[in-house]
Structure formats: C-alpha cells, structure tokens
User: Fold this.
Amino acid sequence: MPEDFKDRVATYTARINDRLNSALPPLATGPKRLHGAMRYAVLNGGKRVRPLLVYAVGECLSVDTNLLDAPAVAIELIHAFSLVHDDLPAMDNDDLRRGKPTVHKQYDEATAILAADALQPLAFSVLANVDGAPDDAAIKLVRLITDACGSTGMTGGQSIDLAAEGTVLSAGELEHMYALKTGALIHAAIVSPGMLRTDLPAADAEALDQFGRAIGIAFQIKDDILDVEGDTRIIGKPAGSDQSLNKATYPALFGVDASRNRCDELLTGALQNIEQFGQSAAPLEWLARYIVERSE
Ligand code: GRG
Assistant:
C-alpha cells in the first residue's frame, strides 16, 4: 500500500473507531451486560471497509468529513448487528469472528440477540441526529439504509442464502443473492455521501451507483474465495465453513479460478465507472482494489 494511503486509512480508521465509541452506550450505564455486548460486537476489530468507502466517496464529492461520520457510523453499526445475527446458532452457528469468540459465545445467545436488536435503532438514531446537513439529507439516508437492510436488501439476501444451502443456483441467481446479502449495504455506503450534496450531477450519482453495485458483489465473491483459500488466523473466522454448511457460493458452484476472473471483471467495470472523477477518486480506486486483492 502506498505510504500516503496507509496514513489516510489509519487516520480514517481511528476516526471511525472514535465515532463508534462515542455513539455506543457507555459501559458504566446499565443495562451493563447488554451495553457490554453491544460494544464488544462493534469494537472487537473489523476492517471498517464500509466507513472507509463512505469517507473515500466523500473525498471524491468534496463532502465535509464531519457530515460523513453519521452514515459511516450508522452503516458500521448495522453491519455489526448483521454479523451478530449471522453467527447465531440458528444461522451460521459460528464460534469465531474477527479472531475472537462470537458475541453469543462471549456472552450468551439471548444477550447477543438483544445487543443486535439495540444496535439497529442506534444506527437510525445516529442518522436522525445528523447535524449541519442539507434539510432532507437525514430522511434520504434513512430511506437508503432501510432499503439496503430490509427484506429486499440484506435480510432478504440472508433469507435466500439460508434457503439455498445444498442447492444449485445459476450465476445470475447467485449474484442476485450476493447483491442483496452483502452488496446492498456496501452500495449504500458508496452512494450515501451523495445524499449530503444538494447539487450532485446525475452522471456522478449514476457512476457511483454502478460502481457500488459491482464492488458489492465482488466483495462477497472475494469473501467466498477467502473461505476456501484463506487462513483462519488471518481472516479471523473459521476457513472452510461455507463448505461445511453446504453453502451455495461462487467457488463451490463455478470453481476458484472462475471466481477470481469474475472478481477481476467486476473490478475493471467498477473502475471504469469512476474514471470521470479523476485524481479525487484515487482513494476509492485503492479501496476497490483492496476489496478484491485482500487476504483478510
Ligand atoms: C436486518 C441488519 C439485518 C440483518 C439480518 C443476519 C442478516 C440479516 C444478514 C447477514 C448478512 C451478512 C452477514 C452478509 C455477509 C457480509 C460479509 C461478507 C461480512 C463480512 O464483512 P467484513 O469482511 O467483516 O467487512 P469485518 O469483520 O471486517 O467487519
């Protein structure tokens, strides 16, 4: 990673961790076990890819960084919420997340469910309280993010995923599931800074929309490849769990080489979409490459 990007990633990561810490209820106030589990679910690591995308697109569109904190925090809280649910015994039944015990292992199942339940409204409260943004920005962000995590977004994708275990899907069906399960929230992160501008040209909105759709799907295909080829110690969750659960994944259905090729194809298309932003899109381009080339 070039040194200047490394510095900026470190700066934005420290920033989002600080904003998440402030948004979460303090440990000193009760219910302490619930608050402890919420903080554990959010602050126990994570690459912070979605907030980094928010900040990178914000740079592209010259949006004030202070305004970007609300969507960055809200989206990361929802992401953390979804991981807690995803790991539960009723879903993927995982013991390890981000190299640490999953929330239901560290606490207990009821506390994990409640912590996730409380993270979701916290996310929307952060959005509702966005300060200094254009008048209709909060409502636009709420609409964007509720759509991304509802039954035609992340929750719907998870439902299709669970139903698809042990079945054969076409590439189109699989990518539809990925677009919902993983892509919708990543896409929301990418288009959210546009909601903080009153004068965004339609061509810029369209370019980010297309970029977001492609990168969202590529992110999940790369996640699948890491499940096959990754190292549990580096990815922080048990490698090979998709195969154990008989999940319908890109590598399982089409092989690792085809998965890699599809990721590259999606990346190339995505990068073409953001060429119009010129040099201001360099951090976004770097993040897109990181998403398909990462080892964690
Ligand atoms: C309504 C919010 C909501 C959720 C209920 C459980 C569920 C429905 C959806 C789960 C969706 C899910 C877990 C998709 C997988 C996405 C994915 C690849 C997660 C891993 O993301 P990383 O690699 O994780 O960014 P870190 O740990 O780095 O944050």
